Amino acid sequence: MTNIMTKGHRKGIAYGLVLLTLLTAGWAGCAKTGSSFTSSSVTYVSVLHMAPYAPATDIYLNGTLSSPVGGIAPSSSSNKYSALQPGNYDIQFKKTGTDSLMADIPASSYDTLHFYTLILYNTNAGGGLVRAVKIADDFSTLSAASANYRFFNLSPDAPKVDLYLNGTAVQTSRASMDNVGYPGYNSFQQAGTGLSNSLQVKVAGSDSVLASLNNQDLEAGGVYTIFLSGVKNSSTNNLNITVLPATY
């Protein structure tokens, strides 16, 4: 898994995502030599603010503000995993600059050398509640010969959707945030590799295209989270597909 992640790290990010820089002393980079860790034991966390009807958020770890000045804007995300000292953390998402709590992930363990994704989301179309979920990212079944991916429907407005890769349906009838109720959707699947892959998200069972993305480089051994986000029929935050390589 380390070699795969290192390959992605060398490539960097080219998808216009917002870098989440956590400011507390506990968040630090991880130095590596080859495939060996040379830093102290750490855990890794990334954040996706995918609640389009929520305001920008500040992130608090055990009551300590741990996010950039100005907060994290809706529809933005980490562009890599950030390192954190292992331990138990209660994670709160508050409206930026206020003490107004939007969502909370109750205190739980963040283990040594494990990876986690935190997602802030709206519960239904037009807004609804703001919720947050912690996902344990399992890299134990990755293939070095294929691209490894998972797909999330993170739009509260989108209907059930099908994901197409190079014209072939690879995920079907995926509802908004269905990975919360069915953790199997958080696992990585294998796909073909190439430099010019095309991705489409269609209304489930139809040929109605909601979003598309072309010329995507999916490396053998690469690890990718592909997600649909945004608001249907919005002029400023329309539905779009993001391909987020796993890097740290």
Give the structural class.
mainly beta
Average pLDDT, all residues: 85
Q: Proportion of β residues?
A: over 45%
Total E-strand runs: 20
Percent of residues in helical segments? under 10%
Q: What's the shape?
A: globular
Q: Which stretches are low in confidence, meaning pLDDT under 50 for 5 or more residues running? A: 6-39
Whole-number count of domains: 1
Distance between the termini: 12 Å
Report the order of strands and helices.
HEEEEEEEEEEEEEEEHEEEEE
Rg = 17 Å
Tally of separate helices: 2
Q: How many strands, which pairing sense, and closed or not: the largest β-sheet?
A: 6 strands, mixed
Quick take:
By secondary structure, the protein is mainly beta. The strands form five sheets. Strands 1, 4, 7, 8, 11 and 12 form a six-stranded mixed beta sheet that branches. A four-stranded antiparallel beta sheet has the order 6-5-9-10, with no helix packed on it. A four-stranded mixed beta sheet has the order 16-13-19-20.
Descriptive key words:
single chain, 248 residues, 4-stranded antiparallel beta sheet, 20 strands, 6% helix
